[in-house]
Specification:
This protein has helices at 31-37, 73-80; strands at 8-14, 20-26, 57-60, 89-91, 104-107. It is α+β, with helices and mostly antiparallel strands. It has one domain (8-112): Ubiquitin-like (UB roll). The chain has a five-stranded mixed beta sheet with strand order 2-1-5-3-4. A hairpin with a 5-residue loop joins strand 1 (8-14) and strand 2. The protein is globular and about 35 Å long.
Length: 113
């Protein structure tokens, strides 16, 4: 739940079956925190956002890829160990919610259900 007076943006999660869930992402928090707080299926986040488990893996809608910062080495290393990695794969714990991400779309991998 967002703090009173906090700024929110819309983040959309699509599950492996095509179901859509719109969530309010609090600016400054991670996309993973948004998903966990809204109980988005497919975002497990076992490590709590420390980039050590990759259970917050999601596919970013390709139209949004150029608006995100490039993944750092630790994120790239974690992604390298996953199955079903795509060019638009990201760890949602490594993505901060910003005003520029209002309306961003993520799809959760079927392997995380």
């Amino acid at each position: 739940m967002a703090d009173p007076g906090s700024e929110l943006v819309k983040i959309i999660f699509i599950d492996a079956d095509g179901g859509t869930r719109e969530c309010d992402g609090e600016i400054g928090k991670s996309v993973m925190e948004t998903a966990v707080n809204d109980l988005v299926e497919g975002i497990v986040a076992e490590c709590g956002g420390y980039c050590s488990c990759a259970t917050c893996h999601a596919y970013v809608d390709p139209a949004w890829m150029d608006r995100l910062p490039a993944p750092e080495m630790i994120e790239r290393d974690m992604l390298d160990g996953l199955l079903n990695v795509r060019p638009n794969s990201r760890l949602t714990c490594q993505l901060k919610v910003t005003e520029d991400l209002d309306g961003i779309v993520f799809t959760t991998p079927a392997s995380q259900y």
